Amino acid sequence: ENLIAANSLFRPGPMDQIPQYIENKNNPDNIEYLHPKLKPILNVTYGCIVYQEQVMQIVRDIGGFTMGGADLVRRAMGKKKMDVMERERNRFIHGEVDDNGEVIIKGAIRNGVDEKTANRIYDLMIDFAKYAFNKSHSAAYAVVAYRTAWLKHYYPVEFMAALISSVMGNTNSVSLYIQECKRLGIEVLPPDINESYKKFTVIDGKIRFGLLAVKNVGEGFIEAIVEARKEGGFNSFTDFCEKIENIDPSVMNKRAVESLIKCGAMNSLGGNRAQFLAIFEKTMDSIHADRKRNIEGQFSMFETMDTKVSEDNLPDLKEFSQKTLLAMEKEMLGIYISGHPLKPYEGELNRISTINTAELFEAQDEMGKTLIKNIDGSRIIIGGIIVSKKNKITKNNNMMAFITLEDLYGIVECIVFPATYDRYSSLIDEDSLVVIEGKVSLNEEDEPKIICEKITQLNRFKKGKVYLKIPEGKPLNTFNIIKEILIKYKGETPVYVYMEEEKKTVMAQRNLWVDIDQKLLFDELIKMLGENNVKVS
To answer: Is 256:271 a contact under the CB 8 Å cutoff?
Structure first.
C-alpha cells in the first residue's frame, strides 16, 4: 500500500497532499474525517483522497449512485465539465426521484449526511478527482518497481544486463544504463566474437556487450558465430572466416565483418583493427574461393589431408590513434565503450550541467505528458562537444546554425538563432568543447531540442590557468580595473597577463588568483577585454 500510494501521490495535484499524508500516517489518532462514512474508504490513505476508485466509492456509498453513475461523475470531474459536475452535485446531495415518486438515487441526505457536510465532501472530491490516479494502475507499477528494485539489489549485474538488452535500439538509453553500471562498479566489456552473444550477457561478474547492438550485424550471422564457438573459440581471423563459411556462408558479408572489426569485436584474435581492416576483404574472398573449389571437387587428395592451423598473414601496421578507434566504436555501436573524448572533462561536465542528453530523452520517451510540459521551455545548462554544424541563411539574410552537441550520454540538436550566432560564431565549430545555456524545446512529435542563448568554452571551467591579454590602446587604468575584478573572485587558479603594448607576460600575485567556477568572473573580464583576450587552459 505504501508503494502504491507513493506512485499516486508523486504527481501534480495529489502532491499537495503529501505533507498531510505524512502527518496523518505518523499520527493516525489525529486524523479527522468529514463524516464517519468516509473512514472505511479513506483509512488506507490516512484520510486523504488519492485514488479515482476512492472518489467513485464515495459517490456510491454516500450518494447512493450505481457503479456506472459513479464512473460518470468521476469522468466529469476529471475533464472539469462544470455544468455536469453541478448537476451531479445536486443528485449526490439530494438524490433523484422518478415521476412515480420512486427513489432512483438516495443521495447523501437520505444516507444520513447533512447538506453542509455533503457539499464539503463533494468539493473535496472535485479538487482531487482532476488529478487522482487509478489505483489498479498504480498497484501494477508498484509491483514492477518492487520486483525490479529487488532484482537490482540482489542481482545487479544480471539485472543491468537484461535492462540494457531491453533498450538495444535506443542508444541514449543504452548510454544512460552503461553510466549507471559504472556508478555501481559493474564493468561493461566491449563486444567480442569469442564471448558475446546476441544480447548483453554476464560473464565472470561483468557485462559483455551484445552483438545485436553492433551496426550491420544480423541475427543469422550471430547465431552462426555462437554455433561455431561450440567447437572451440576462434584463434585467428582466418579461422573465424573458415568456421562461419562451413556453417552458413550466406550469413557472413563484408559489411558486417567490417563492423565487427571497427567496434573491436575481433581484438581477441591477436591483431589490431588496422591490420584486420587491411586484410579482411582479401581473406574472405580467398576462403570463399577455396570453399567453392572444394565443392566443385578441384582439391587434390593431398590438399584435403592438409590439417594446418589457420593463421593470419597480418601486415606490419600500427594501430589507429585513440581518437580514430573511439570514432569507429561510436559509428558501429552508437556509443563509446572503451573511452570517451569528453572523459577528461567528466568532472567539469557533471559540475556545470543541469541536465544531460539521457535525461532529456528520458523525459520525452518514458515520462508522462505533464512532465514534458514542465520541462518544455525550462532553462538548462549542458556541456559537450560539437560533432556537426549546419549553417543556414534566414529570409532576412542573417546567418544561423543547427549544431549537434554530444555529451557523455548521447546527442541533442541545438538551434542557434542569428543574434546568438553573431555573438558566438567563433566558438561554433566541429570538435569545439563548449557549454551551452538555453531553453528546452520539447513536443510529442519531435526529439528534444535546445534553443541556444549563450555559448562558453568548456575549458574555461577546467581547473588550469587563466590567460588575459591587454591589447594595445587600452586605457592606462585597465590593469587596475582587472585587478579589482580578480579580487572579487578569489580562488586557486593562477592568472597570467600579457600586456601587448609592452610585449611581456606577468603572473598575477597569489592574492589575485581566481575561482574559475564563478561564471560572472569571465563575463566581467570579457566585457573589459573582449572574447578573444580571455582564455583558460
So the answer is: no
Grid cell, residue 372, equals 514534458
Comma-separated ranges of CATH 2.40.50.140 domains in the chain: 344-458
What is d(CA 60, CA 46) in angstroms, rounded to the nearest whole number?
20
Q: Which tens digit of pLDDT belongs to each residue from 384-423? A: 999 999 999 999 999 999 999 999 888 999 999 999 999 9
Q: What's 344-458's CATH class?
A: mainly beta
- One-letter amino acid of 293: R
Q: Report yes or no: 293 and 299 within 8 Å, Cβ to Cβ.
A: yes
The closest of 385, 384, 357, 362 to 372, measured between CA atoms, is 362
Residue type, 342: L
Q: Count how many residues are written for the chain.
A: 537
What would the pLDDT profile of 46-75 be if each residue is shown by its tens digit? 998 888 899 899 999 999 999 998 888 888
Helix, strand, or coil (residue 442): coil
Strands (E) located in 296-398: 379-393
Grid cell at residue 139: 498497484
State the pTM of this model: 0.70
Rounded Cα gap, residues 496 and 507, in angstroms: 4
